[in-house]
Structures
1.
Amino acid sequence: MTVTINYFAWLRERTGISTEDVELPEQVSTVAGLIDWLATRGEEFEVFDQHRELIQVAVDQQHQPDHGADLENAREIALFPPMTGG
Amino acid sequence: MTVTINYFAWLRERTGISTEDVELPEQVSTVAGLIDWLATRGEEFEVFDQHRELIQVAVDQQHQPDHGADLENAREIALFPPMTGG
Amino acid sequence: MTVIPEIRIQAEDFNLDSEVSKLTKNSNDIGAVVTFSGLCRDEKGALAALELEHYPGMAEAEIRKIAKEAIDRFNLTGMIAIHRYGKILPGENIVLVIAASPHRHAAFDGANFLMDFLKTNAPFWKKEHLKNGKEGKWVDARDSDMKAASRWEDIL
Amino acid sequence: MTVIPEIRIQAEDFNLDSEVSKLTKNSNDIGAVVTFSGLCRDEKGALAALELEHYPGMAEAEIRKIAKEAIDRFNLTGMIAIHRYGKILPGENIVLVIAASPHRHAAFDGANFLMDFLKTNAPFWKKEHLKNGKEGKWVDARDSDMKAASRWEDIL
């Protein structure tokens, strides 16, 4: 499955990536699985393991409060720290 | 005791008076006594008896929620219906 | 630092931006500004105007008293209240309250508190003028406004 | 009548009067307008600017969702929300929320509700730029903001 992943705030800074298209391994089917896999992608992705509990996810621009959320048919995934608008 | 009495809203309309200087009879020493006395001053003052419970009073520009309030040393008394600002 | 509220009783309309910027310019400690504008409503289309009568002197003093209480209770960094008098047409402004604070809930509470007590304690009275030329009535005070003011006694 | 909120995500500043008058002109059923302006604070004098990053598309959609909920809950007759992005200097505006209603408490509650959920649900992030040229930190989310949003579950 090919998805677009967007990174925001310090996740963007740490990974050095704003947006990328990636081919997800077949075993990645949930948000938690995605975070596990991202954390294996090298030093700049260790932040996903270190700050796992802070990481927020939106799938196709819908916020998913639960890391158990399904990624089936996802086209655009966004990863970001807790929001601080307003 | 000579005092200035101001009337507002429908008390001003009914009495036909905005402001007047009056000599209060000696026995008038409280707000309730003042309302009793005003009600005796003729037809246009009957409103003070008819709507006694609605009438609000300020003595020297201090609102007196209680009709038992003292008029001693009062210089300016205002009589008005419940306030409807804002 | 003592915060002095600005209270004005005037016939003229007001401008939101220029009033707000009086509080915010030259200040870096204001994170939140809440404004409340009260307007003349006419849902039935029968109203020509509201006429606002007030007790000069006492009107300003009462609003100032409430504003000072709001500043103390909610630690406001600024407060402005403007109340108009005279004839006010449907859709026009009647009253403006502005509360400024470092934090948003204090600014909301400060403006809300001032409006609740202004309704019950500021010596203003409204008379309706009708479009059909008939004499309108004096607006009645509302029990809900008395209740709104009393709710603050339970807080803080 | 369906009330459609106006939501804008923009770099430019806004003008309070012109935004409020969008809601109030041509309307005689609005008795109350509450505005909330959120400003960039710098109490310690160390901040050069805040930089606001956002998630285009989702930011507008999330705020629109909250605004629609506010309109339904509080029977608002109008709502506008503007959130800025990019570099914002101390003392400048960050966000504006406007709620209009026939009655004052609904307007207060509507603006307050939208701000509480905007803080926790709208995808914006703030980074500090310091005057001394050093790299500032990303502003942390606050527990108090989570609590503020959760209080609305007990109401209505």
Note: The mean pLDDT of chain A is 96.
2.
Amino acid sequence: MTEEEERAEVLAEEGTVVDPRRLHEAGRIAEALVFASAGPVSEAYIAERLPRGVDVQHVMRALKGFYAGRGVNLVQVDDSWAFRTAPDMSFVIRTDETEVRKLSRAALEVLSIIAYHQPVTRAEIEDIRGVQTSKGTLDVLMEAGWVRFRGRRRSPGRPVTFGTTRDFLDHFGLEELRDLPGLDELKGAGLLSGRIPANFQVPLPLGEDELAEDEDPITQMDLEELGLLAPGGHDEE
Amino acid sequence: MTEEEERAEVLAEEGTVVDPRRLHEAGRIAEALVFASAGPVSEAYIAERLPRGVDVQHVMRALKGFYAGRGVNLVQVDDSWAFRTAPDMSFVIRTDETEVRKLSRAALEVLSIIAYHQPVTRAEIEDIRGVQTSKGTLDVLMEAGWVRFRGRRRSPGRPVTFGTTRDFLDHFGLEELRDLPGLDELKGAGLLSGRIPANFQVPLPLGEDELAEDEDPITQMDLEELGLLAPGGHDEE
Amino acid sequence: MQATEGKPQKKARGADAPMEDLWQEGAEGRGLSEESLVVDLAGFEGPLDLLLHLARTQKVDLTRISVLALAEQYLAFIDRARKIRIELAADYLVMAAWLAYLKSRLLIPKQAKDDGPSGEEMAASLAFRLKRLEAMRDAATRLINRNRLGRDVFARGMPEHIVTERRSAFEASLYDLLSAYASLRQRHAITQVTIEKRNVWSLADARELLQLLVGTVEDDWTALDHFMLRYLSDPTERTTAIASAFAATLELVREGRLELRQDGVFQPIYLRRGPKAGEGGEEGSAPRD
């Protein structure tokens, strides 16, 4: 049924004559109101905003018919109206999907230190932050796919070094690590205030694929040893 | 796949007739996807979820037309699509909570310079405005999500360049950057370049007829004063 | 905005107003009108902004302004500001010097072996910069008056979660990342800086001290330095103490509690009780007769 037919039907039912353009305008108003609202909109609320002399129920019924066969339906909940995606569309709209989470402040700090100071060890991260980094924070960043083991530092204990991934660059819209703004630019953008000591420096991060002079590449052995062979490594211990 | 479907697919690939039912179904899917989201949904994302062989652009264009006269419109934002209330509906929807970020005059000026001149460095912004960008101006624009670091200019010092975001387009109702008001005229007048365009009219420096009413023509006195202007200011009023 | 329905319409105005106010405020805050050239640079954002404002008073298209007249206006403005001792930022003075140079270039015939830019070139470049700035301001106005999301146009109020587009389940923008980094580094940088605490005498301190002194001052002239030194144990405090004390003395003189005398430049400053020395010291610290 076309919109035109629907309208004609409504009119026939009513037995009154309403200017069709006015009726169309009323439909547009109701539609916009329900669409923009954060919850179902009561019929009374809609009625208040319609042109005078237009019956809200007829407008809503016509709109409901208009959306009936579409990907989005207008549904009535008690005396209120709301838009819902059509029930048979659930295969595209998977509402059970996990929500996108905001990265915590701590994780952001650790991530930014890794980005700027890479290759960097956990001890160094903690030194820069001035607090201990919980294992969970690094895990989250690894899980997000933004941080990776780069290698091992040739120093006592051979600590693992961290760096960022290609996904990190993609996500943050950077072409290369050198695109990270430096000291002057951070200042210029108002992110760093003028009140910083003269010897304050922002490091230029070392590219993803270059190893630092005191860095060894990470090996399969290392990963196993660290017990961090991610999803695949469900090995019994 | 039936023979008929196969034929439809071949035709679709050729950009010709597609089974109308399939096209309708594709429209419903696209509609549901875009409707469900508050932010713009990328065309690539929609395309992945459409039945095979259906041209996403064709579907979106048809949908856009379908919603054109309604209270809710389908709009394009860069490579994405979103449903937005029709602009002439603003008077019904406005509520007390409706609040738009207020920008300072300076911030607004910087925003438009970034929009029209992007990619643009901070030094270039300052050259256009003739003043240093105060701390916090770029900061505010980035926090609003309208401005971003784009990359670095391949010039000495590799300065960071700024540009606008998709949220900027979305907020100001622009499909793409080319829709910026007056962009072509500004380009044509050479006002988006750093250099004076060849066709820029050189004002006649001695055009006395162009003096404003409250101005006096140059006198012999003035000529004598030349060079001494800075310190004294000996003339009486 | 059409429609006359009272309430939403008012709201509409209300929402628009701040944006426009912003602009109007900017224009009104400029202490410069065509009739009376009141000097107040507070409303201007630098010399180019001032020049653009002056250029607009010529009421012609910017490509047709008289750059020479503009230079004149600017220089006159700066002169006026200096006369009434407004402290001008360096960039205003640099522009003044440049315009004075431009003026000389425009007025004095070009020398044969002169390799600097010609006056015409300089004038053109100035006109270009003004035109470009004005164009950007116009663009900003047009931009801000578009139908804006959340003000004129609205998104779905009740979004449903769709399959996330991002491969990552986490969200963070480059801005989030950079501001986290900057504030972290800054926090630590600042805590490492210890600024040596300087002992500064506030004006109030000095006044209080002087009022105490006034009671002890005889009718004879006494040197100020002499007074100060008597109360200072730490020599590093001398400069600040004398400066504040002198300012406070002037205040007391104005109030008639003190009289000052200095015989010549760099000579010691003498003070003695003023005619109203005994009258109510408002802080209880001053002794009452």
Note: The radius of gyration of chain A is 30 Å.
